[in-house]
Amino acid sequence: MQQNQFILQQGVSGTLELFPHMKEFGLRKNNTIQLDSFVQEKSDCLNLFFIVDGKFEWVIEGEHYVLYPGDVAVALPDQEIGGSKGYYDIGTFFWLQLKVEKSSPDGRMSIGRWSNLSEEERRTIGKILMLNNLPVLKIKEVAGIFQEMRSEILSQELGYVTRVNHLLASLLIIIARQSTRQSGSRRDFPQTFLKLEQALRQNLARQWTVEEMAAMVGLGTTAFTERVKSYTGFTPLHYLINIRISEAIKLLKRPTVNFTDIALDTGFYSSQHFSTTFKKLTGHTPGEFRKRNYANNQHNK
Amino acid sequence: MKNMECVITIEIGTNAVRVMAFDLSGKVIGSMKGSYPTFHVEPDYSEQDPDQMFITMLYVLKNLLNEEVHPKNYHVISICFSASMHSVLPVDKHGTSLGYAITWADNRGKNEAFELKNSSLGKEIYETTGTPIHPMSPLIKIAWLSRHDKERFKKAYKFLSIKSYIIQQLTNGYVLDYSLASATGLLNIHNLTWDSKALDFAGITSDKLPDLVPVFHSPGKLRREYQKSLGLSNDVKIITGSSDGCLATLGGGVWEEGKATITVEDSGAVRVVGKKVLKDERQRFFNYLLTEKDYVSGGPTNNGGVIFEWFAKQFGDFKGPYDIEYTMVNLIHEAMDVVVGSEGLLFLPYLLGERAPIWNPNARGSYFGINIKHEKQHFVRATIEGILYEIYSIGKTLEEHRTINSLTASGSFASIPFCAQMIADIFNKPVSVGENPDNIARGAFLLYATDIGVFKSLDEAARSVVLANTYNPNKVNHQVYEKYYSIFERLSTKLYDEFEAISKYQNEQ
Asked: Are B157 and B75 contacting, i.e. CB atoms less than 8 angstroms apart?
């Protein structure tokens, strides 16, 4: 792994001429402590840091953070960042200063046009970073991206401009995704989710929407869907269908309850909707299920 | 295109079901999981909805087949099951579940367990069945139902395990393998029949239990509607399979004497394998069967990774963006900065009471030896050391009966490199860690592969497991740990009276 220090600055070395959106990019190996080397400051750029080794204590927008290897620090335009004691601790890190576009009416940030992301995607990434406002993320893959960017820029082989901009776009995508994953209900998602599950079961007849479920645990829908998926293996709506069918099975095993009642009690629009969903999952219609269950077990006795 | 054969394993765990597909060489084709909740309607209760577990299993199975198996033209020849031990689910004569399933973690039968354990009958039942007398045991749970939930008890046509229920839903057969049965506290593990004294204590007759079958047994064909909805053929062989603990041992690559396997997820266990029952006067170990000839013996702990997670929740840094996994990773970093032995700070991890080796539900946690120089990071490291000293104490008691030369470690907590190295140092033995964390599914695959003759024996199957990383013990560190461990061990027993006293007050609240 190449770990030599370097610094590229717009307008200074010329190497960044073809990347007007990059203001600064470098790797710093800090072996000694220099007072005032990193005082609290804000810039109009998006500032990204990646810790390679060492342990850094920084303040971002007034909050204190301890950063370890594998951590990415993100300071948005106009956010203050600096060392807690005003200097860089001993260690190694990459940093990148990226110019971003700001749409004037709402002050929203958007990634520049240099990438081949769609306009919608560029705005969404900006929105995610601003809304989640998570200054520290753990993303080990960023090391590889920065190293590749550096060697592409320095070796200037065929197609390097395209390659570097690709890498830059993947970097922002990874950061936005991780930011979504890390946001919200952090301390104890399983506990939070259990409470939601109980609420769903208590009122299964209701037509729950993802927005409502997300709101109940205090998350945005995107973050909520991501969390539920990684925790349960299902999207929120599929998880809900699981619960509906589980309850329906119990009711089907009671021969006196009719299908329409079961369907409505367990939150299906109609007995038709219930029947279709049930068959898709279990391979038989509710009627066949009830019949089979009885026939088989009579036989088993 | 060529049609290749594959085996599906279904692992019905405590928090989630994991479905995996293997080709016949043991390569993983795909893996998916789906989780379900545990409900605690009263303090000692721990229950799960069997129908939700069934539907989740079906859903995940279907997704895996449709996304990974069918598109790649694999032909499924078998489905092999594994499940957590000790669950109890009463069903009526239609196979309908009567209420929720009671999981291994349920403690409602603690009075029944206490009463039986301290009687000569209890000692006799332990020796016959191999299962420690404890609220986890189905023996105790059924006894509890017979005394405190008479209505449900009377309605019960059979008392199933959750795995039996799921297999019954898929095939109509009421079966339980000798392996899971050997963890019910009801099976005579020497002659493989239900034990009449245990049945009497539970208040049931053997017809209230599923049919006993070998782990390789096929309970019947997959119901036709499932063949159709899952896109499986009529000849797919359903295999009853075994328990998570036994299969994790096999899948961990341990199937010979001289080795032990350490598994630490939320809870943990140290296990050895042998052809003979491990006899312990003090009833500290379990003896479970895998096949009718192989015993998996060892001791379980309640206080594994769940204790570190507790620590992280209480004292980790959450004011930033951190979620719990992230916080735990950071805490491990902090622990690395502290010298071996945490400069004399000791931690007893008994927050959840303890099973092996002290078997004391009233044991409680404690930090000991704090001095003015200890900082937060010492507590982080001491917590991890305490959890692993407890694992060591199980290992040491096992060594009174068996020689252990080397270890394998698995499970989300024990396989963290920092923890694996610490285990090596504490035990002063080399620790191997496998490449994939899915020991249970791999064990299920190996079981099937042995059945159809891919491997000649379970020993040979276990040897096929690749153990990629080995952590060698550091003698100097071992000496430090050994010094502190002797205090840890003494504290665990010396505090007995105070554990009783404090837990009594806690229980009054």
From this structure: no
Query: Which domains, from first to last, does chain B contain?
Result: 4-245 (3.30.420.40)
Nearest beta carbon to residue A188 from set B38, B319, B324: B324
CATH superfamily assigned to domain A189-300 = Homeodomain-like (1.10.10.60)
Here the ipTM equals 0.70
Instruction: List the end-to-end C-alpha distance of chain A, in Å, as a whole number.
Output: 69
Is B52 an interface residue toward A (CB < 8 Å)? yes
> Quick check: A234 and B59 CB within 8 A?
yes
Tokens 């020497």 belong to B190
Class of A6-182 in CATH: mainly beta
Strands B4-12 and B74-83: parallel
Return the structure tokens found at B313: 């929740």
Which residue has tokens 């002063």? B428
In chain A, the residue whose alpha carbon lies closest to the alpha carbon of B207 is: A301
Residue in A250, A280, A297 nearest the CB of B51:
A250
DSSP code, position A202: H
Residue B349: cis peptide before it, omega within 30 degrees of 0: no
Every domain of chain A with CATH number 2.60.120.10 lies at 6-182
Task: Give me the residue label for tokens 């929740």.
Answer: B313
Chain segment B264-291, per-residue pLDDT in tens:
988 999 999 999 999 888 899 999 999 9
Secondary structure (DSSP) of B59-82 = HHHHHHIIIIITTTTEEEEEEEEE
Chain segment A71-119, per-residue pLDDT in tens: 999 999 989 999 999 999 999 999 999 998 876 555 678 888 888 888 8
Whole-number Å distance between alpha carbons of A175 and A76: 13
